[in-house]
Write a structure and sequence with these properties.
Elements: H1 2-15, H2 23-53, E1 60-64, H3 66-77, E2 86-92, E3 99-101, H4 103-119, E4 124-133, E5 137-144, H5 151-154, H6 178-188, E6 192-198, E7 202-210, E8 216-217, E9 233-237, H7 241-253, E10 257-261, H8 264-274, E11 278-282, H9 291-299, E12 304-309, H10 314-321, E13 325-328, H11 333-347, E14 349-354, H12 358-368, E15 373-378, H13 381-390, E16 395-399, H14 407-416, E17 425-429, H15 435-440, E18 446-450, H16 456-470
Parallel strand pairs: 1-8, 2-4, 9-10, 9-11, 11-12, 12-13, 14-15, 14-16, 16-17, 17-18
Antiparallel strand pairs: 1-3, 4-5, 5-7, 6-7
Helix pairs in contact: 1-2, 2-6, 3-4, 3-7, 4-6, 8-9, 13-14
């Protein structure tokens, strides 16, 4: 928990553009973040090791598709290649039966072995194969074309805090616990882990596991706990392991609690039960079928559905089916976060602030910030009318003394438009108004506030009351 806090607050500082960090300070914060993540990995490894040795790590028995787990593991480690020319590949024997084992632990075994292979490979290939051994066992091998392991080190690489002494990229990095934990996880699943290697040519780590193990029965779909924190929940529906992993990662980094599935029917079921705030649907991996969008949209109107596709014509189909946002693939983190921000703003009450005095405009905006409003601004009457025509606001804070077209004329023109007449207006004025002026402003929805004579709480209360009365 303390390390997560360090990482989290450091990330907030790095992402906060208002801090205007210089290069030296940014590099220092990035170093804090990098070392905090390394230390968190060590803490997690030590906790895993201690749980295993204390006999307190539960083993579950659940259906597991080896091909699916291998694809997901490869998607997770893809970014570890950095810019190195390393090919990631896999081959699963045709007809390989489904396993009944602990999916999470087998996934961790694969990720640990793949991460290790990539770390010690400068260029070439990292390959995973899976095949049957006899009638009741599966052999999964992870091979690489890396630096290899010396014969003198092979007997020691599975010891805690021990690393091979190979020279080359990635050597002498990490905690020396990855292989020790991997071996114990394999043993927990009733299997064996072996290695063969030649220096300068690469290594092969082989895991042999039973097709079925006994253990606790994993929770069924009906028994799964619903997503928490409804305002920050998300569901990812994507049949492609790589893009599913990345979309889930982007949403998690944005502060969402994320559920994910590669099955469209299961996605509809989760959406109807958990009612997430955001649902992303990859149409390419679902055969461009918009039926899943229609089913979720019809039962979950309050959520934002984001459709993803690289196909021409997909945008129109997705929006017609009920998607609120369409993004053309490939989608990166910035694109997804911007789409979420636009969707969130669209769900907020929109307040237009109009004032030609920059300081007064900034003051009104600052008072409204944090009140849960989507705030837009204008500096004269013509801009105000253009903003209203572009997207009708839920309320307007309007300075009367504007250049070109003053507040009186803005109010008059609004009164002539049936669609604008009901928009509540909060009028700001620095002087007392005559009876005639007040009558000219009487459109039934106007409230008048004296400039310099109201607090933030009073302004927020006026805006809330005005919007509430208009609904």
């Amino acid at each position: 928990t303390p390390m997560n806090a360090i990482i989290g607050f450091t990330s907030l500082m790095l992402d906060d553009r208002s801090l205007q960090l210089n290069d030296r300070h940014r590099r220092s914060l990035e170093r804090v973040s990098r070392n905090a993540r390394d230390l968190l990995e060590l803490i997690n490894n030590v906790l895993d090791l201690s749980k295993i040795e204390a006999g307190r790590m539960d083993v579950y028995s659940e259906p597991a598709d080896p091909a699916d787990l291998i694809e997901r593991a490869l998607a997770v480690v893809e970014s570890l290649k950095e810019a190195r020319p390393i090919k990631l590949s896999y081959h699963v024997e045709e007809g390989l039966p489904a396993m009944r084992t602990d999916r999470t632990k087998l996934q961790q075994i694969l990720i640990n072995l793949l991460s290790n292979a990539i770390k010690f490979t400068e260029q070439g290939e990292v390959n995973v194969t899976a095949e049957c051994v006899g009638i009741d066992r599966v052999r999964i091998a992870v091979s690489d074309t890396g630096v290899g392991i010396a014969d003198s080190d092979i007997t020691r690489i599975f010891e805690e805090f021990r690393q091979a002494g190979a020279a080359g990229r990635g050597a002498k990095t990490g905690t020396g616990l990855g292989l020790a934990i991997t071996q114990r996880l394999v043993e927990l699943l009733g299997g064996e882990l072996s290695v063969s290697s030649r220096e300068g040519q690469g290594s092969v780590f082989t895991v042999t596991l039973p097709l079925q193990i006994e253990g606790r029965i994993a929770a069924t779909a009906e028994a799964e706990a619903p997503l928490t924190d409804p305002d920050r929940t998300a569901l990812v529906i994507d049949g492609d392991p790589g893009s599913l992993y990345l979309t889930k990662k982007y949403l998690s980094e944005a502060g969402y609690s994320v559920a994910a599935t590669d099955d469209a029917g299961r996605g509809v079921e989760i959406a109807s039960k958990a009612r997430p705030a955001v649902v992303t649907i990859d149409l390419d991996s679902l055969g461009e079928d918009t039926g899943v969008i229609e089913r979720i949209a019809s039962s979950h109107e309050e959520g934002t559905i984001i459709a993803l596709s690289s196909q021409d014509g997909a945008e129109q189909r997705a929006l017609q089916a009920g998607a609120g946002v369409f993004l053309r693939k490939p989608v990166d983190r910035a694109m997804l976060i911007n789409a979420l921000e636009r969707a969130n703003r669209a769900s907020l009450s929109r307040v237009l602030v109009v004032d030609d005095d920059p300081d007064a405009l900034d003051l009104a905006v600052a008072m409204l910030e944090g009140g849960g409003y989507d705030i837009v601004t204008a500096t004269n009457g013509r801009e105000a009318l253009e903003a209203i025509a572009g997207q009708k606001p839920d309320a307007i804070i309007l300075d009367l003394m504007l250049p070109e077209m003053d507040g009186f004329e803005v109010v008059h023109r609004m009164s002539l438009n049936p669609e604008w007449r009901a928009i509540p207006v909060i009028l700001l004025t620095a002087r007392d108004l005559s009876h005639e002026e007040r009558r000219a402003l009487d459109i039934g929805t106007a409230r008048i506030i004296q400039k310099g004579n109201f607090s933030r709480d009073e302004l927020l209360a006026e805006v809330k009351t005005a919007i509430g009365a208009a609904e």
